[in-house]
TrEMBL record:
Belongs to the NAD-dependent DNA ligase family. LigA subfamily. InterPro entries: BRCT_dom, BRCT_dom_sf, DisA/LigA_HHH, DNA_ligase, DNA_ligase_CS, DNAligase_adenylation, DNAligase_N, NA-bd_OB-fold. The gene is ligA. This is DNA ligase. Keywords: Coiled coil, DNA damage, DNA repair, DNA replication, Ligase, Magnesium, Manganese, Metal-binding, NAD, Zinc. It is an enzyme of class 6 (ligase). Its EC number is 6.5.1.2. The keyword DNA damage applies. Residues 2-56 form a coiled coil. One of its GO terms (molecular function) is DNA ligase (NAD+) activity.
Length: 668
């Protein structure tokens, strides 16, 4: 039993450190806040029951991530930027309030919205902003982002009151309207969408170009006084009023409370208006109001004892399912999508959610006309939680995807050993559109400006019948300009030029764009490094393909069968005749480099390199990057907060490299 507890403890710590790294240092979380909170609660419970197993490097004993050298230099904290103790129930809130009141009967509490952003400390000397510092590790140091902070809405460069020193802690956030605008621009430019406003704000604040901050509309709310010289403040609400008088925005609608009943009512009121706020919140903060009482209560190494953060459960709404639409993707896969009466969730209106496949529909027993419960996974992606069957009427019938393609009417069949139903007609218009969109996308041929609307027009007017036809559009330049299918002369010539440039792309881009099932960017790179040419891959036997790193039997079979199709062979021949590159450029360095074909996994934060820089250096030396650790991994490059990937590598006895050791290996 003791060994099982230790094993689970190590698993939790590794997993949490991995997610801390993604959240704090890469601004790209893989799980929702709620899922993260459940992991942390389990870890805390085990450590509470087994205090002898608590270690100084446990995630429960540390604050946030680490400071990064991105937009500026590292600066030592004058006052620690601690996190807050999270609580998840009314009982825990009551316990906190009662505990404080038992020692301080006259204590007041302030209840505030917990903005979902990132912390920033503003340091004013004689009323002038001199330094802005991110949270970093929360204890020792953060990152100097002063130049960027000056472009935040709400940050005052000069204060009316010229105190010798004033340090204000605030939360940087992105209003929902600004976030939607940024993602619309990202989509228009065929760039990766940001997962949520918090991630966008974090990534933007670290930009080297400070003008991006202003363009993206980042803002700041002040929520705490860190330190002041030249004036004595007595209460927290007094400091908030002082900030307002200086022109610094503060948390909206904070409430003073005396009892635990008042505190809980304030938390419920914030929850009621949560969906209508112009920015994201993920909870409510309860703070002791009197600053001297805060001093008396003190802090642990990680959290203050004078405040807690109540985290709201994921928001859910009930609505009526109006219809189930069927769409066909580039591989012929038929995807059912629920269409329901619009509801507001996490500040946006949603009316659609994917139903994945027939098995998912059958498991939930979803029927058109049902009342369903909808939520947002990670407060981003709408999903259906369940069906309220007690509200179902007797006339509703089970939904079946059927055996006909909803677009072309061809037979649709279920894949062997999967839940997917596919259209069998490779000439299906919906499949063609999907294949073309994938082919020109940034993870394939990356033909910028070739949007979905142009593809639809060119298919409708019979200019595109397969992916190779893209490289013959130049023959119809005058017709395209006359019909305005891509725009006027300048726009048409610009796109034709981009198409011509794409012929020189590395062959992995072409392979990724062919639309072979299970073959994306990473797999395409591995295959072209191994086989060097598309022709060599096309002629390979299935067992030869399986020898490539991380290439399983199913994927190898998909590739083998793809190149045995006469239709696909004809498309490949058209691409060759058009002059599309199908071979890796042979270099002496690549042929002799001992990294050729070696698999690397990057984890944690490296001292000097970003992950992108390290990955590029490895790939340029002939190595390949994988996102997961497996027995086929040759090296794991581990930085700080390496997390679960490092733990797995150690279990598999895979060689672990530091950044310096990687550089030595690259130099050999």
């Amino acid at each position: 039993m003791a060994e099982n507890i230790k094993k689970r403890l190590n698993e939790l710590r590794g997993e949490i450190l991995h997610h801390n790294d993604l959240y704090y240092n890469d601004d790209s979380p893989e799980i929702t806040d709620y899922q993260y909170d459940q992991l942390m609660l389990e870890l805390k419970r085990i450590e509470k029951e087994n205090p002898q197993l608590i270690t100084a490097d446990s995630p429960t004993q540390r604050v946030g991530g680490i400071a990064k050298r991105t937009a500026g230099i590292l600066v030592r904290h004058d006052v620690p930027m601690l996190s807050l103790q999270d609580v998840f129930s009314k009982e825990e809130v009551d316990e906190f309030v009662s505990s404080v009141l038992s020692n301080m009967p006259d204590c007041e509490f302030v209840v505030e919205e917990k903005i979902d952003g990132l912390s920033l400390s503003l340091r004013y000397y004689n009323g002038i902003l001199k330094t802005a510092v991110t949270r970093g590790d929360g204890i020792v140091e953060g990152e100097d982002v002063t130049a960027n902070a000056l472009n935040l809405h709400g940050v005052k460069k000069v204060l009316m009151d010229k105190l010798p020193y004033l340090e204000v802690r605030g939360e940087v956030y992105m209003p929902r309207e600004a976030f939607e605008k940024v993602n619309s621009e990202q989509a228009a430019n065929d760039k990766k969408l940001f997962a949520n406003p918090r991630n966008c704000a974090a990534g933007t604040l670290r930009q080297l170009d400070s003008s991006v901050i202003k363009k993206r509309g980042l803002s700041l709310f002040a929520f705490n006084l860190q330190k002041a010289k030249g004036r004595i403040f007595v209460k927290h609400d007094e400091t908030l009023q002082y900030f307002k008088d200086q022109g610094i925005p503060v948390i909206h609608d904070y409430v003073l409370c005396k009892t635990k009943e008042d505190v809980w009512k304030a938390i419920e009121n914030i929850a009621a208006r949560r969906g209508h706020l112009p920015y994201d919140i993920d909870g409510a903060v309860v703070k002791v109001n009197t600053l001297a009482q805060r001093e008396q209560l003190g802090s642990t190494s990680k959290v203050p004892r004078w405040a807690v953060a109540y985290k709201y459960p994921p928001e859910e709404k009930d609505t009526k399912l109006l219809n189930i639409n069927l769409s066909v993707g580039r591989t012929g896969r038929i995807t059912p999508t629920a269409v329901f009466e619009p509801v507001r969730l996490c500040g946006t209106t949603v009316e659609r959610a994917t139903l994945h496949n027939q098995d998912f529909i059958d498991t939930l027993d979803i029927r058109i006309g049902d009342i369903v419960r909808v939520y947002k996974s990670g407060e981003i992606i709408p999903k259906i939680r369940c069906v309220l069957k007690e509200r179902r009427t007797a006339d509703l019938k089970p939904f079946i995807i059927g055996n006909e393609c909803p677009v072309c009417g061809a037979p649709a069949v279920r894949d062997e050993n999967t839940a997917d139903v596919r259209c069998t007609n490779s000439s299906c218009p919906a499949q063609l559109e999907g294949r073309l969109v994938n082919f020109v996308g940034r993870n394939a041929m990356d033909i910028k400006g070739f949007g979905e609307k142009y593809i639809k027009k060119l298919i409708d007017d019979k200019y595109l019948g397969d992916i190779a036809d893209i490289y013959y559009l130049h023959k119809y330049r005058e017709e395209l300009i006359e019909k305005g299918l891509i725009g006027k002369e300048k726009n048409t010539d610009k796109l034709l030029e981009k198409i011509e440039e794409s012929k020189k792309n590395a062959p992995w881009r072409l392979l990724s764009g062919l639309g072979i099932q299970n073959i994306g960017k990473a797999a395409a790179k591995s295959l072209t490094i191994h086989f060097q040419t598309i022709d060599a891959l096309a002629g390979a036997e299935q067992e030869d393909i399986e020898q490539v790193a991380d290439m399983g039997g199913i994927s190898a079979k998909m590739i083998f069968e793809f190149f045995r199709s006469g239709e696909n062979a004809a498309v490949l021949e058209k691409l060759k005749k058009a002059g599309v590159n199908m071979a890796e450029k042979a270099t002496a360095d690549k042929e002799s480099n001992n990294l050729n074909g070696r698999t690397f996994v990057l984890t944690g934060t490296l001292p000097m390199w970003s992950r992108t820089e390290a990955a590029a250096a490895i790939e340029n030396a002939g190595g390949r990057i994988s996102s997961s650790v497996s027995p086929k991994t040759d090296y794991v490059v581990a930085g700080e907060n390496a997390g679960s990937k490092l733990v797995k590598a150690q279990k598999l006895a895979i060689k672990i490299l530091s950044e310096d050791e990687l550089k030595i290996l690259l130099a050999q």
